[in-house]
Design a protein that fits this description.
Blueprint: H1 5-21, H2 27-54, H3 65-68
Helix pairs in contact: 1-2
Length: 72
């Protein structure tokens, strides 16, 4: 089953939001983060395949805002 470009973008936004809020306290949290990163890579690959099929250039997501936010 193929996902539409809009669905992939929505999932990427949800994934980035989750990555921006998760706090790693133990191994289970670290595994979750690793799984989320793997999921992001898979979604990026799906997005790239969909863009190539449609004849559009592939664009990558900008870095997570949470990662670039200045601390208070």
């Amino acid at each position: 089953m193929a996902l539409s470009g809009g669905s992939i973008e929505t999932l990427m936004q949800l994934l980035e939001a989750k990555l921006g809020t998760v706090e790693v306290f133990d191994r289970e949290d670290a595994r979750e983060v690793k799984g989320l990163h793997r999921c992001r890579e898979e979604l990026e690959a799906c997005r790239a395949r969909a863009a190539r099929r449609a004849g559009h250039p592939v664009r990558r997501n900008p870095p997570s805002r949470a990662a670039s936010a200045a601390p208070f």
